[in-house]
Amino acid sequence: MKTTDLSEAVDKTVSIKPSPCPWCGVVQDMASGAGHQKTPEPEDVSLCIDCGEWTVFTETLGLRKPTDNEFIEIGQRTDCRLLRMVWTKVDAQRRQGNERQA
Ligand SMILES: [Zn+2]
After folding, report:
1. Ligand 1: centre distance to CA 45 (Å)
2. Are the C-beta atoms of 86 and 5 separated by less than 8 Å?
3. How many angstroms does the Cα of residue 27 sit away from the middle of ligand 1?
């Protein structure tokens, strides 16, 4: 995934049914397709922008934790690895920004 692909994806942010992240509890109400421009569907993998953990859309488009097998699958996906790397960098910048403000 190129950087340009990610910035294009960010432009395609869509509203989703507000659902709490099963890891951190922050309610997610927006989603951006990374590398694909589509509205989330059941079983699609998602990365929580707040805690950086993986979630999976349920049948009703809520969010759940991935199963063990899904975690293995996610770990093998290049797009997921790149997305997590980008999230880690953005999160580090966000933390630095918060430290400067404090
Ligand atoms: Zn979260």
Report:
1. 13
2. no
3. 8
Rounded distance between C-alpha atoms, residue 82 and residue 54, angstroms: 13
- What is the radius of gyration, based on Cα positions, of the chain? 14
Cα 8 to ligand 1 centroid, rounded to whole Å: 23
Predicted confidence (pLDDT) per residue in 32-76, tens digit: 877 666 789 999 999 999 999 999 999 999 999 999 999 999 999
Domain borders along the chain are 3-95
Q: Give me ligand 1 centre to Cα 3, in Å.
A: 23
Residue corresponding to tokens 């890891």: 23
Give the C-alpha distances (Å, rounded to integers) separating 99 from 40, 88, 92. 34, 17, 11
